[in-house]
Amino acid sequence: LDRSVASNWPWFYFLEDYFFPVCLLVIHFFANLQPLHQELYSMHPSAFFLPTFLEAVRTNTEESIASIMTEPIPGVFSFAMLQPNFCDMLLEEVENFEKWVHAMKFKIMRPNTMNKYGAVLDDFGLEAMLNQFMEEFIAPISKVFYPEVGGGTLDSHHAFVVEYGKDRDVELGFHVDDSEVTLNVCLGKQFSGGELYFRGIRCENHVNSETQHEEMYDYSHVPGRAVLHRGRHRHGARPTSSGLRMNLLLWCRSSVFREMKKYQMDFSSWCGECQREKRERQIQCVKATKHFLGVLEGQ
Ligand SMILES: O=C(O)CCC(=O)C(=O)O
Ligand SMILES: [Fe+2]
After folding, report:
1. Which CATH superfamily is domain 35-257 in?
2. Any idea which UniProt keywords this protein has (predicted)?
3. Which of 81, 138, 293, 297 is the most exposed place for a label (fewest CB within 10 A)?
4. How far is ligand 2, taken at its centre, from the CA of residue 296, in Å?
């Protein structure tokens, strides 16, 4: 939807952003979707997060946060995050929601344009809890590691679960996320395959540019373990070859960053290709200067 065209007609905003959630709320009310685990709908840090993770985030220093992380390739962080019981409860909650949708013969809103299976968690009552999840437990980390893409000013999210396996999605194509920072946590269950492959961070102008060898990295999901990366870090998921894999995704966004980006041209603080071009320009500049000095000396 072109917002400039829609700007004369506020109903467009309503339809685009709120229509589906509002429908679900109304349906909720009349058709009585019963939550299975009520405790998921408000934040209980010690029941949701592992003690190591909680301690690091609560201490909230660069050192404490870095101490629980591995950074296998620049910009991709991995850490043990969720309690096994929380993962199980969330999986059961999604299954409960899907059963209800099926029984009511409703059509479920799919997580994004790429995944056919899974559910948008914000649409069945988890939005407030997940907002707190982002503000209190992801923002402190992204503020440290991704300040140049709005990591310090995250203010909205899109949260969903994806499902891969037999009768589900098999793999996920190469893409970038509609987020500044993405949290991807494996919830289970048992599976093989499904590795995430990363191929370098790119701005919009360079999204299709070549991958450098040192930008290639494959990550194997482990239940309870999170991967954090910039939304513009190109990636995809390999086929889940057996079993069932379900992951929680939080696409975290910063409206401040999105506004500022409109007035910028050079993204060399994070785009791998902008950086490469900048280095190339510097090399050419040094060469030209040397050549010029050589000519002067020869005179
Ligand atoms: O399947 C995965 O782990 C990746 C999912 C993903 O990249 C996405 O939904 O944006
Ligand atoms: Fe993604």
Report:
1. q2cbj1_9rhob like domain (2.60.120.620)
2. Dioxygenase, Iron, Membrane, Metal-binding, Oxidoreductase, Transmembrane, Transmembrane helix, Vitamin C
3. 297
4. 54
